[in-house]
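Our example copied in:
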Amino acid sequence: MELILWRHADAEYGLPDLERALTAKGLRQARGMAELLAPRLPKTARILVSPAVRARQTAAALGLPVQIEPALAPDATVAALLQVAGWPQAEGCVVVVGHQPTLGRAAARLLTGRDTDLSLRKGAVWWLSGREREGVDASAFLRFAVGPEFSE
């Protein structure tokens, strides 16, 4: 399984939290990352997105169909993220567009087997590939990680 964790791009401050939109900088970050990702995504990739406006706007930059997933809201748990993504059993590629600290915690659990915090910058993408070994729980390796400054 391929799991792509994409943190929403730069967003305005304020409340209500779910209605915060991307800033002009965030829109540029989302477009740049989409240009980097789109040619690398398999045509069958599923794109799961938090219901927050900023996450939906980030994902929209891909110009591909998305599935809004309430379980990926800003207060999501790592368990909920992994469940909706289908980790590790799902076939193919799943893109999750969401929030910190959940994305960083999911990456930490998959890469290290520990529940700790890693930080994904706003607009960053971490692409993880799953691997299963006989008698060992599913683990992941980092295929690549890129911050928004490399895609603008």
The chain has a mean pLDDT of 93. The longest helix spans residues 24-37.
